[in-house]
Write a structure and sequence with these properties.
With about 80 residues, the chain is mainly α.
């Protein structure tokens, strides 16, 4: 996929209200579930922690595509 297309798709995803709402809802649900786990249920907390990390990594990857693409555009503009 061409870099311009990747940049545009990443921007569309990150600006999509449904995407943002979905990630916020998922994050909130995971945190609430985590807080309501039993003291003895460390395995469930570990899975929930991993879920939060994965959610963050997905968001970070899309943001990275966007920022890298924008930085490349700036460098092109300044002929660097």
């Amino acid at each position: 996929m061409v870099d311009e297309q990747r940049l545009a798709r990443a921007r569309n995803i990150l600006d999509n209200k449904l995407f943002v709402e979905s990630f916020e809802t998922l994050e909130q649900n995971i945190k609430e579930t985590w807080l309501n786990t039993s003291v003895r249920d460390s395995e469930a907390r570990e899975h929930l922690w991993l879920s939060l990390r994965l959610l963050g990594q997905i968001r970070l990857h899309l943001t990275s595509i966007l920022e890298t693409g924008e930085m490349a555009k700036k460098l092109e503009e300044y002929h660097l």
